[in-house]
Amino acid sequence: MMNYQSFENDSVTPALGAPFFEEHLARYLFASKYAAHKSVLELGCGHGYGAYLLAQSAQSVLACDLNSESLNFARTHYAKSNLEFIKDTVIQSSGQLFKYELVISLEVLEHIQPEETSAYLTRIRAHLAPGGRAIISTPNHEVVLKSGMPIPIFHINNFSSRELKCLLEKHFTKVEMFGQIQKQGALGNTLYYLDRWNLRHSSFVKNFRKIQTKTLQTNTVSQTQRHPQKDFNPWKIEQGLGGAPSYQFSKNLWRQAGMTLAVCS
Q1: What is residue 12's predicted lDDT score, i.e. its pLDDT?
Q2: What b/e readout covers 99-123, taking b as 16+ CB neighbours within 10 angstroms?
Q3: Domains contained in the chain, CATH given
Q4: Which residues pair with residue 41 across a beta bridge?
Q5: Which residues pair with 40 in a beta bridge?
Q6: With contact defined as beta carbons under 8 Å apart, do 2 and 91 qualify?
Q7: What residues contact 102, with CB distance under 8 A and at least 6 apart?
Q8: Alpha helices in the chain (DSSP H)
């Protein structure tokens, strides 16, 4: 019997300035490039704004989650004719095993019990139509540990980017790895590329970056000062009306980035 459970605060809030929202939305923008005219299954849809974004170009989207509160929010704010939200686990499905051209599961792997990992990936593989793709993301635990960031209590199944690649290659024929980082130009990308051991998180580099950050803060609006928008429409960002998040997804920087994405087939 699977042991996946939902938590009150395990879904990202769809509001500009909310923790992790812009980074999370950027991953949906990345995934939307693969969703055009496709049948899409999302496992772990949270509040539903990502599924709504995918539905703008997809043929159809079935979005699953266990959190009833998140699903109620999604159905209220992101209803669309080609989008359906259902309460379902990320491990097993009691219904018929339908096939989809694209299966998406963003930041779910770290929430499930370690012994359920194989079942989770097996379900994704089973739902893939011939020639279909799966997009899976999870924090790069190596970077999380070295950066000193707190680990949420519901992150119980953590992988470094290298461990994730090895795991996925056991379940899929082809695995393309991407790292998500903020856009920073050619010099910044080069420094990231050279930092294969993630030395930028050492005490010396951190102190140097703190000095740089203080010089920039006078011209920067803190995310906590922004007003949440509960009815925020993610489609506006894709249309350029809200300012697209400034992130890039690099095949060269997947070992160094704090968030790892894999496109599997």
Answers
A1: 76
A2: ebbbbbbbbbbbbbeeebbebbbeb
A3: 21-264 (3.40.50.150)
A4: 62, 103
A5: 61, 102
A6: yes
A7: 31, 34, 35, 38, 39, 40, 41, 58, 132, 133, 134, 135
A8: 21-32, 49-55, 68-77, 117-127, 141-147, 161-168, 185-194, 203-216, 234-238
DSSP-derived letter for residue 180 is E
Phi-psi category of 258—alpha, beta or left, where left has phi over 0 and alpha has psi -120 to 50? alpha
| Range with lowest mean pLDDT among 86-90, 105-109, 136-140 | 86-90
DSSP 130: E
CA-based torsion, 116, 100, 169, 141: positive or negative: negative
Span 126-131, mean pLDDT?
A: 94
> Which residue blocks in 42-115 are alpha helix, DSSP H?
49-55, 68-77
How far apart CA 119 and CA 115 sit, in angstroms, is: 8
In the chain, the largest separation of any two C-alpha atoms, in whole Å, equals 57
Higher pLDDT, 26 or 202: 26
Q: How far apart are CA 135 and CA 30, in angstroms?
A: 10
Within 13 Å, how many C-alpha atoms sit on residue 164's CB side?
Answer: 31
**Stronger pLDDT, 151 or 32, i.e. the higher one:** 32
| Average pLDDT, integer, range 187-194 | 64
Band the pLDDT of 216: cuts 50, 70, 90.
very low
Beta strand 60-65 pairing with 247-250: unpaired
Cα–Cα distance for residue pair 80/66, rounded to 1 Å: 20
| CA pseudo-torsion sign 81, 86, 92, 94 | negative
Please tell me the distance from the alpha carbon of residue 149 to that of residue 259, in angstroms, as a whole number: 13
**pTM, 2 dp:** 0.79
DSSP SS3 for 53: helix
